[in-house]
Amino acid sequence: MINIPKGTKDVLPTESYKWQYVEKVARETASLFNLKEIRTPTFEHTELFQRGVGDTSDIVTKEMYTFKDKGDRSITLKPEGTAGAVRSFIENGMAGGVLPAKMFYITPAFRYERPQAGRLREFHQFGVEIFGAKGAQTDAEAIIIAHTLLKKLGIQASLYINSIGCPTCRKKYNQALKEFFAPHLDELCYDCKTRYEKNPLRLLDCKEENCKKVNATAPSLLDYLCEECNAHFEETKKYLQIAGVEFAINPRIVRGLDYYTRTVFEFVSTAIGAQGTVCGGGRYDGLIEELGGNALPAVGFAVGIERLLIVMEQTGAQMPEEKKPTVYIAGMDEKSRMKAFALCDTLRQNGVEAEVDHMERSIKAQFKYADKLGAKFVAVIGGNELAEGVMSVKNMTTGESEKVAFTSVVEYFQNK
Ligand code: HAM
Questions:
Q1: In this structure, are residues 288 and 295 in contact, taking their beta carbons and an 8 Å threshold?
Q2: Taking the CB of residue 113, how many other CB atoms lie within 10 A of it?
Q3: What is the pLDDT of residue 267?
Q4: Bridge-partner residues for 393, per DSSP?
Q5: Residue 160 CA, ligand 1 centroid: distance in Å
Q6: What's the CA gap between 159 and 363, in Å, rounded?
Q7: Cβ(113) – ligand 1 distance below 6 Å
Q8: Which residue is closest in CA terms to ligand 1's atom 16?
Q9: N vs C: which end of the chain shows fewer Cβ within 10 Å?
Q10: Ligand 1 lined by 381 (C-beta under 6 Å)
């Protein structure tokens, strides 16, 4: 037997309705905020992520699924959705269209991580990107979109926000971080020594216990924000307050991707343990230009769909039940089974969800099967019914039965 690859999951036919529900709510939320769907390829040129996500991030240095295709090109399965959306925005000249360009996607993403609850190697994101708007109102709107989705799904998660400033204030802050960490270099993990040289901000994101201990007293970026970045952060908070969205400031949030500027945020649930971040995002004003477009600001976020589903399951969030067939048609003998097949087909062609037996079951076993399917109505056809041109239909909710003529089954079931 060949097993599923480590860190991947099947969505079985018995549970896919949960995914469909979350995706439906995500699409409805997107529509409320006038976001249009974008679909980009599952793989891109490796360079897009090296330049986009950043070559000091763990994602690029350790976690990408990169391979050479048969034309000797370096290809990478997308580890996230933002870089591809930005590439497409630039390549399709969307900057010349209506701004802001507001879009969303539902996409698989691939990261070679150590799998655990809520952490997979193939996972799925609902992501939102808004291109072209620089004001704090749009930072707040991105957060409000995520907040609205979580609320609609009945997910309790705390919102943490921070500002990581612009390249100008970050330069000063990186210097301060280097001075702070210099006497502690021996206590840091191997990776952090590289981070210290290449991108000191990354030091704050390390998950190693020793590094976390040192980090705890590191200077806060918020004390180094330039006047504009500080004003932007204050305004973002104001807009969130206007919308009644509760938040806490967490100066330790730096995010695992290199493209962020100014506002960064995460929604964290306590229901999954270590992988409680159900949503992450922020502003990335330098990325469009970095990837070859005009200098245009942008902001966005992504939620992990697997994590949403885990939280919903753990907390017993309400979810509609799996869709059931409207009617199951049982046939007693060969002729009645033929009629059941024909009527079932007529119903389906007219938009009614109907089912018949495929396994040559006895009539008793068919009733059991109909019960398992959860059919709202069970219809029976036998010799007498065939002769009369009717079927006996039982409403499984009320227990009432009535005869329905073969000629009027469509009208009978169409509105049930
Ligand atoms: P991210 O924080 O790397 O951000 O991922 C967003 C969300 O995807 C996480 O909060 C988490 O719910 C989910 N996620 C990430 N890695 C895994 C994994 N290995 N297994 C399961 N779920 C996972 C981004 O990807 C940015 N592109 C978000 C963004 C959009 N920023 C601006 N625009």
A1: yes
A2: 17
A3: 98
A4: 379, 402
A5: 15
A6: 56
A7: yes
A8: 119
A9: N
A10: no
The answer to whether 74 and 107 are in contact (CB under 8 A) is no
Quickly list DSSP for 246-292: --EE-TT---SSTT-EEEEEEEE-SSSGGG-EEEEEEE-TTHHHHTT
- Say yes or no: CB of residue 79 within 6 Å of ligand 1: no
Those residues with Cβ within 8 angstroms of residue 316's Cβ, 6 or more apart along the chain or in another chain: none
303 close to 321: Cβ distance less than 8 angstroms? no
- Per-residue model confidence (pLDDT) at position 273: 81
Place of tokens 């902001």: 299
Q: At what angle do helices 16-32 and 136-152 cross, to 10 degrees?
A: 150
Q: Is residue 131 within 8 Å of 82, Cβ to Cβ?
A: no
Round to whole Å and give the CA distance between 391 and 412: 12
pLDDT at 80: 98
pLDDT at residue 168, as a whole number: 93
Which residues of 18-121 form beta strands (DSSP E)? 36-37, 43-45, 66-68, 74-77, 101-110
Tell me what pLDDT residue 272 has.
Answer: 84
H-type alpha helices, 78-181: 82-91, 136-152, 167-181
Residue whose Cα lies nearest atom 3 of ligand 1: it is: 256
307 lines ligand 1 (CB under 6 A): yes
The rounded average pLDDT for each run of 10 residues, N- to C-terminus, in the chain (416 residues) is: 98 96 98 98 97 90 96 98 98 97 98 96 98 98 98 96 94 92 90 89 88 90 95 98 97 91 97 90 97 97 97 93 95 96 98 97 96 97 96 96 97 92
| Ligand 1 atom 25: residue of nearest CA | 80
Q: pLDDT at position 55, please? A: 85
Instruction: For the chain, give the number of residues.
Output: 416
Cβ–Cβ < 8 Å for 22, 308: yes
Decide: 205 in ligand 1 pocket, CB within 6 A. Answer: no
Which residue reads 């707040």 in tokens?
140
As beta bridge partners, residue 74 has: 68
Angle at 313 between CA 311 and CA 314, to 5 degrees: 65
